[in-house]
Design brief:
This protein has about 200 residues and is mostly beta strands. It is elongated, with a radius of gyration of 19 Å.
Length: about 200
């Protein structure tokens, strides 16, 4: 519960900050000069995680700043109940901000994100079975290349630090509890290769 409250507070803070910054009245915040204000995308490597569904939406605040919100979702279980069960279930929302050095949705950028997740993992590369929740903060950098008027390819890499609360189980069906752990975990690298549709 504490992790969920922390994540909600962090997400509210970043949206309030972005909204305040978007009301500044100067030439850099003139959104009428932007050819695209919205970008919708999906990260191709995430689909390889046992079919994890994912989508992301970005909104340009001006020519150099954008805010984003995304979701990863995987409800799938394979070989359920036959002793070979494995899954990588998760529900992972995130919000973030990006600074674009050239122009929004083009060229190089740096950014940060806040993320929360509820997850359950079983027998993935000898992982055993565990489930739990986490709240995380991440940083990253990348590059976006327009492919046409509406499409762009975005490449990037980052790192994420998470505070997690995890319970470990004896079998793939998450039966007898073996133990629990709460602490920090670092995920490197966080790779994304996304296809963006510009609106």
């Amino acid at each position: 519960m504490k992790l969920k409250l922390l994540l909600a507070a962090l997400m509210l803070t970043i949206f309030e900050t972005a909204a305040t910054g978007g009301t500044v009245k100067d030439s850099a915040c003139d959104t009428t000069a932007l050819s695209h204000r919205w970008a919708l995308s999906t990260n191709i490597p995430t689909w390889a995680l046992l079919g994890t569904l994912n989508a992301d939406a970005q909104l340009a605040l001006d020519t150099h700043w954008s805010i984003r919100a995304g979701i990863k979702y995987n409800p799938f279980t394979f070989h359920k109940g036959d002793g070979r069960q494995f899954h990588l279930r998760q529900a992972t929302p995130s919000v973030g901000v990006r600074y674009w050095f050239d122009s929004v949705y083009e060229g190089w950028f740096v950014g940060g994100k806040l993320m929360g997740s509820v997850y359950s993992v079983a027998n993935i590369c000898g992982s055993g079975c565990f489930d739990g929740q986490l709240a995380a903060i991440g940083i990253g950098a990348g590059w976006s290349k327009p492919l046409s008027e509406r499409w762009a390819l975005c490449l990037g890499i980052g790192a994420t630090v998470a505070l997690h609360d995890t319970t470990y189980y004896a079998g793939p069906s998450c039966g007898r509890i073996l133990g629990a752990k709460r602490g920090l975990a670092v995920f490197v690298p966080d790779v994304f290769v996304s296809v963006n549709y510009l609106l």
